[in-house]
Design goal:
Strand content: 25-35%
Number of helices: 10
Largest sheet: 9 strands, mixed
Oligomer: single chain
Strand order of the largest sheet: 6-5-1-9-10-11-12-13-14
Distance between the termini: 23 Å
CATH superfamily of one domain: Ribokinase
Radius of gyration: 18 Å
Low-confidence stretches: none
Mean pLDDT: 95
Order of helices and strands: EEEEHEHEEEHEHEHEHHEEEHHH
Structural class: alpha/beta
Length: 307
């Protein structure tokens, strides 16, 4: 049995979420009542993936810049409370950290986001940061800050560290998207990314194109309640989602990424890792916010045994 505790370093989007549960999402120029407000949970694709990975048994380390503002304090505190290593975080004097306002419709469990992305400087990639990437089992990226992601991927490739990319943030120039995606060993995309980047209209053709465009050994797209579609090399395979009554889907994809990486690093079994990640994502959706519902390893194992 593999007893190694996976080490995952993340470079990507970190923010603080303000979750507003509304009566219903209003039409343009309309209004609705906010029923509840929760500003206690952090967000961001890589950030939440790392929190999930840490909760499920990995050693997780975040590499980012934050402002020295109150929002940055909350983001940092959220990482530390979730046992994500923050030694490689740098606070930028006078900087404003990223924040996001999320409107949650309780009738559908869907959310509408209004993010503010920071204008903080790119990472310098110090010797300590380079060493952390080289010593990790995996580097997880989301491409939000493209220069950071590309430079981190190059460092990882040189060191032989596995590169995982959350295909969610896109550049206007498709050549840039393909360059970053082409450096990933694990390429997991949202439902829109493979179509837009490949220019294909058929799901299988889009996944085939993305698989042929780089070195990825794992290529798939997550499609919410429709489950996961993975390219196997000989064709496309569908993994249905676990049926759950979703309260809030915020962060579901991010949790999937973190959980998939943990199990994949433990087993190198793609199908088992997908099921593991789908279960983690399903359990997350039972609670509001991107992080409160992330299960422990014990709770996830109980769920898998029951399904």
């Amino acid at each position: 049995m593999n007893t190694h505790r996976p080490v995952i370093v993340g470079v990507g989007h970190c923010c603080q979420d303000t979750l507003c549960t509304v009566e219903r999402y209003p039409p343009e120029d309309g209004s609705t009542h906010i029923l509840a407000i929760d500003d206690s949970q952090g967000g961001g694709a890589v950030a939440t993936a790392l929190v999930a990975a840490a909760r499920l048994g990995a050693t997780a380390r975040i590499m980012c810049h934050l402002g020295d503002d109150a929002v940055g304090d909350k983001i940092l505190g959220g990482f530390e409370a979730s046992h994500v290593d923050t030694a490689l975080v740098r606070r930028i004097p006078g900087g404003r950290s990223s924040t996001s306002y999320v409107m949650v419709d309780p009738a559908t469990g869907t959310r509408t986001k209004f993010p503010y992305r920071d204008a903080l400087p790119p990472l310098e990639f110090t010797q300590a940061q380079r060493a952390a990437i080289a010593e990790a089992d995996a580097l997880h990226l989301d491409g939000t800050q493209y220069p950071n992601a590309l430079n981190a991927a190059r460092i990882a490739r040189e060191a032989g560290t596995l590169v995982s990319l959350d295909g969610c943030s896109r550049q206007p120039e498709q050549a840039l998207n393909l360059a970053l995606a082409g450096m990933a060993d694990i390429l997991i995309m949202n439902a829109a990314y493979p179509f837009i980047v490949s220019g294909q209209t058929d799901r299988a053709d889009a996944l085939r194109f993305m698989a042929a465009s780089g070195r990825a050994r794992v290529v798939m797209m997550t499609a919410g309640q429709d489950g996961v579609y993975a390219w196997t090399g000989s064709g496309m395979r569908h993994y249905p989602a676990f049926p759950v009554a979703a309260v809030d889907t915020t962060g579901a994809g991010d949790v999937f990424h973190g959980a998939f990486l943990v199990r994949y690093l433990e087993t190198r079994d793609t199908s088992e890792s997908i099921r593991f990640a789908q279960a983690a994502s399903a359990l997350k959706c039972a609670m509001p916010g991107g992080r409160a519902g992330i299960p422990t390893r014990e709770a996830l194992n109980v769920f898998l045994e029951a399904h």
